[in-house]
Amino acid sequence: MTLEEVINEVLQNIRPTEEERAFVHSLMDELKEVARGTAEGLGLDVNPYFVGSTAKDTYLAGDHDFDLFLAFPIDTPIEELREKGLELGTAIAEKLDSYEIAYAEHPYVRARYKGVKVDLVPCYDVKDWKDVRTAVDRSILHTKWVNENLKGRNDEVRLLKRFLKGINAYGSEIYVRGFSGYLAEILVIKYGSFLEVLKNADFMLRQKVIDPGNWLRKEYETAMKTVKREAEEDRPLVVIDPVDPRRNVAANLSWEKFGRFYFKARGFIEGPSAEFFFPSERGIGNYLEELRRKGTHLLTLTFDKPNLIDDILLPQLERSARGFERALSREDFTVLGWDVGHSGGKAFIMLELDRLERERVRIKPGPEFFTERGWDFYRKNERVWLVGKRLYAEKKTDEHIVDILGKLLEKNQVAMGKGIREKVKRAEILLDYVPKELEKEAYLFLSREKWGLRE
Question: Which residues are listed for Mg(2+) binding in this entry (predicted)?
Answer without folding.
Answer: 65, 67, 119
